[in-house]
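Standup notes
- DV: blocked on the single-chain target, sequence here:
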Amino acid sequence: MQTYDKDVVAWANEQAKLLRSGRFELLDIAHIAEEIEDVGKSEQRELANRMSLLLAHLLKWEFQPERRSNSWQRTIKAQRDGIHKRLKKTPSLQPMLSDEDWKSEIWSDAVAQAANETGLADFPDLCPWSLPEQVLNYDWVPGEK
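- DV (later): unblocked, structure below
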């Protein structure tokens, strides 16, 4: 029997076989529960990473208008697409968009990324845009009416 710590992929395959064959007494319940929880955490990380990247590009768009490019537009659209798909696939993530602590963390990550990429340091302490109304709106970018 494979152990969880030695080869998680082999362990997962073995656990799936045990489940399918009804051999529940042999299941590694504690690690199965841990893996199921990790799936949820992975979905949350995916949403956070996409949102942070989107916000960083929106910051760059607003604070470096002379450097705006098709590449930035594509990244903004791609992240919005990914976020919308993630929220449609996993609607239980929707409340994160209104969680102030989550938004604060995401904003801090976005500011750090934008500062690193631009060399600028004078970004707002709080997100100046409404989330999700403006940030996820395909027809909106900062600095344009």
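- Follow-up: The first helix runs from residue 8 to 20.
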